[in-house]
């Protein structure tokens, strides 16, 4: 008998794109373990909710009082908009809650979550044959819980997973950067394996650990019935903006130019946004006088975002890269690939070969870079004209390439690589 303990603050029904990864790993790992147990935060019940049924999962909620709990109790959203992050107080608070030693107190989770989760895990270890622990970042509290378990039970095989980097060379999100690197190294040396979502992130994590593997995000199976396309030609972005890291102005300028030149009819085109950062979109929309075609849904559920993605004629992925950090393969990329609609990727920064490779291999669409107005204009014009002529925008993904990116295939390769299949006690 062998069992896995998944430690994940970000877990359904909490509404977060991070939960897509933890939920997929939870479900997929049942094939390789007799039991999969979860320890997560009690906050998952009070934060914005998605319609994911977790009633059959073996979940223990660790009582948590952190800044998200307090914000929620005060009736304020705990999902910070970009304006909050750019205020002086907001910047200081965000950096403190992301930096050691203060993140233990003020970060997501905090001391109470860590203490209660460790206590719950110790009880679980006495009752179940847990052999592996899989902890996630962010928040770092999940790794701190796993560290305490590993120190107390050295026989546990600890996998420390990173959806993104704690010490991120592309962001000024920490205080005392050299100290943060030292702490990461001291913590991660206890892990048996470190996993992350791309080779670009893996390169940085290898400075902290000798055994780093890429465990990419995967494509979800389609849920519900196939959706009809929107009646108007619809270009959609669902997601966050991450301050000035993601740029949408090239896209909006291209659309405005095409309407002004008469290529697009403003009566049969819509630009759709769904996410928490409407305040970032509206100034640029007003600047180009596109209020009449802009549909702002605000923050929506995971299922509603899926429907928008499936019904749109063209989806937009906004992301970024730097010379120091490439391979920013967010969960949102795989959400769009799951929808299998044409995709325009707009990268703010230098060339990112990992993203380009995925888009090329899957036939998903086109990669363009911030300021490349010609490429953006040509692609959306081609899409619009095809739709005008045919009433659709036919687009065929490469199924073989898509299949390799599905969660079941990703976890199959991961299990093979790490000997999980050979030690299975049940088929």
Mean pLDDT: 90
Order of helices and strands: EHEEHHHHHEHEHEHEEHEHEHEHEHEHHH
Q: Unreliable runs, pLDDT <50, ≥5 residues?
A: 78-84
- Any idea what the CATH architecture of the largest domain is? 3-Layer(aba) Sandwich
Structural description of this entry:
The chain has 427 residues and is α/β, with parallel strands linked by helices. It folds into two domains: 3-218 and 407-417, Rossmann fold; 233-403, Rossmann fold. Helix content is 41%, strand content 17%. The chain has 17 helices and 13 strands. The strands form two sheets. A seven-stranded parallel sheet has the order 3-2-1-4-5-6-7, with helices on both faces. The protein has a six-stranded parallel sheet with strand order 10-9-8-11-12-13, sandwiched between helices. Strand 1, helix 1 (18-28) and strand 2 form a beta-alpha-beta unit. Helix 6 (110-127) crosses helix 7 and helix 10 crosses helix 15.
